[in-house]
Amino acid sequence: MNSAPLPEPDRLEGTEHPRFTETIYGQRVAEERFLNAFCSQRLLHAWLLTGPKGVGKATLAWKITKFLMMQAAKTQPDHAPVNLDVDPNHPVIRRILALSEPGLSLVRRSIDPRGKHLRRQITVEDIRLLGEQFALAPPDGLPLIAIVDAADDMNNFAANALLKLLEEPPANTFFFLVSHSPNLLLPTIRSRCGVLRCSNLNADMLKLAVEDATGLEIKDQVALFELTGGSVGDAVQLHANRGLEIYSRLVKLLAMESNFSGLEATQLADECTGRNADTQYETVTTSLLVLLARLTKVASGINVNEAVSGEAACLTRLAQCRSGKFWSNLHTRLSSDIGHAREVNLDPASVVLDMLFKIDQTAA
What we know:
Strand content: 5-15%
Distance between the termini: 56 Å
Order of helices and strands: HEHHEEEHEHEHEHHHHHHHHH
Number of strands: 7
Largest sheet: 5 strands, parallel
Helix content: 40-55%
Strand order of the largest sheet: 2-5-6-1-7
């Protein structure tokens, strides 16, 4: 019998699920906005948590959920709370961590019972199940809370079904919609939500957050910040998957003026194929897109701090060959090529080689 744990689309590989995270870094403004709404009794029934991927939106949604449940469970409300902290040993909090709290619903991409794999979208069936759960009021007067992570994953039918729930929410109900691209959501959904904006972390906060998430000491926090733009999720993956080492190899490879090494390019591409090479392939292709994004800035006259040794010289040389718009268009094309390659199951080594040689040919 297969005892492997079910995949969790709302959890970053290599880290714990956001519901277990107690400390949020760099999002004090969003925390205080919600706390002020709570203390002034101007709490909305629906909130949209926006911002780039990996900056703590889901963690904040779970922290707020635990806070609301904890406040409702108190027999005698005390003075106005000054933060969103909770007692991790309280029975309500333990039930939330175990996903056994009856008043809590988590909506995320579900398992397709026919194919036994994760669906690509949140379906209308997932939202209808949420409606059925909301029809059953929880005991002890606790609120009904739904976390949708990510709301961007809903298909049109699911989005319209959620809109109906937002239009006529049951009493004492709260929705928290995590969204990386809120402009893609229905305007009618956005209009019914308060907004909690989460921003990218600075280098110091990023270092603390990554160390907290991984338990590893970060010594190259400047490079990590430069290549991830302050996204904890991206930084965790980059650090865990030797991303800085791979990025340095790409810089050295593309810095070779009129002496592009096909042998080294082939060696790097070959490392992306075969069993258990998916992570390497993902890291290499992502690093190439990051390099192109930074190159676009340099070619457009925008200064970037050097992330790894030799990067400034490499980007300067390539920027002199083409305009920022040209490199931006190449970034878009290669990003699309990666998505197409994944759909039709192309050989990873071929994809990486094609990307490298297109960059080199563009600079020629």
